[in-house]
Amino acid sequence: MNIHEYQAKQWLARFGVPVPGGRVADTADEARAAAEEIGFPCVVKAQIHAGGRGKAGGVKVVHTAEEAGKFAEGLLGKALVTHQTGPEGRIVRRVWVEEASRIARELYCSIVLDAAAGQPAIIACGQGGMEIEDVAKETPDEIIVELVDPLVGVAPFQVRRVARRLGLSGKEVGAFGALLKDLYRAFLDSDCMQLEINPLAQLDDGRFLVLDAKMNFDGNALFRHPQIVELRDITEEDPKEVRASDLGISYVALDGNIGCMVNGAGLAMGTMDIIQQYGGTPANFLDVGGGASKEMVGQAFRLLLSDDKVRGVLVNIFGGIMRCDVIAEGIIDAAKEIGVTVPLVVRLQGTNVEQGRELLSKSGLKITTADTIADAAQKIVQAVQAEEGRA
């Protein structure tokens, strides 16, 4: 789960992390009032769940209340297109107005969960700001990576090692170490997957200040953090993913045109891979889980077909706890209710597979069955390509 920059700063402040003062505004008038209260110069920043806002024109230093209001008015209710949003952009529904800072230097600092190492990793760089992606690509040796033992935490020698490579010395090292430990505590206590500070500003008086913050939380741990759950902004999420979350279905929207309904994350990934191997593109990742009911299968099927991009559907189910006849009943009921007009290929294996196949064959629906994953993928790709050729 992601949260907005202003929410991340407010959350980090609970852990003693230094952040600029600011106010959130939903209207141009509120932005004017916030700027008056904060003083000038101040910064007005679009709030969307995407990076690259500065380059896209979503951040501006303003010197009057009228300028703040005019800039906010130009953002609110409109789509901001960045390199992370795609061409459709994201609608700006609020702005953050904060104090301007006297910046001497911009750094980069993040803490992420390194899945390969099974440990949190501190990632830092002496060049922060809008060009950090270019630094990582062109001069990767400047990126500092320090794995943290979760049983020990951030050790003093690690603070010194990172600080030295950042070019810090004297009292700067102590101030940076205190900040890093507060960030790590926020990361750990909040069950974060990613905590990114870019830029981390070093002010002209030597202090450090978080100028931008991105936080992503482990969805499986949110039951421990009701206060974080309250920060969720579903307007920033794909409506289909929100609906799937409410239904308890694992779903991620993709850019392809073949809808996939599978049970088991590994089988779902394999299904998407083999669709691509045969020249197709998956429209989603959808895992209904190992013990889904007939009703959940029906809901998942409806969810797939609610995507306008879907030109065909592949159902790939291995019946273990979940019986194939139950899957078949759910597919048939949903297909009859919706009136499926796109090609539908179903591959069933496992418990009660013969009963499931018999139900499909007697349903009166135009359903193509398959015995193997490869056979199913090849059939759905060919069917979709044929439909597109006729169109």
What would the principal axes of the Cα set say about the shape?
elongated
- The number of E-state strands comes to 18
| Structural class by secondary-structure content | alpha+beta
- The CATH topology of the largest domain corresponds to Rossmann fold
CATH-derived architecture of the largest domain: 3-Layer(aba) Sandwich
Which strand-content bin applies to the residues? 15-25%
Tally of DSSP helical segments: 13
Distance between the termini: 39 Å
User: What is the CATH level 1 assignment of the largest domain?
Assistant: Alpha Beta
Low-confidence stretches: none
Q: What does the largest sheet look like?
A: 6 strands, antiparallel
How much is the radius of gyration in Å? 25 Å
Approximate helicity band: 25-40%
Number of structural domains:
3
Overall pLDDT confidence: 92
CATH level-four homologous superfamily name of the largest domain: Succinyl-CoA synthetase domains
Task: Tell me what the structure shows.
The structure is a single chain. The mean pLDDT is 92. The chain has 13 helices and 18 strands. Strands 7, 8, 9, 10, 11 and 12 form a six-stranded antiparallel β-sheet that branches. The longest helix is centred in the middle third of the chain and has 19 residues, at 171-189. It is 38% helix and 25% strand. With 391 residues, the protein is of the alpha+beta class. It is elongated and about 80 Å long. It folds into three domains: 20-100, Dna Ligase, domain 1 (2-Layer Sandwich); 102-236, ATP-grasp fold, B domain (D-amino Acid Aminotransferase, Chain A, domain 1, 2-Layer Sandwich), CATH 3.30.470; 237-390, 3-Layer(aba) Sandwich (Rossmann fold).
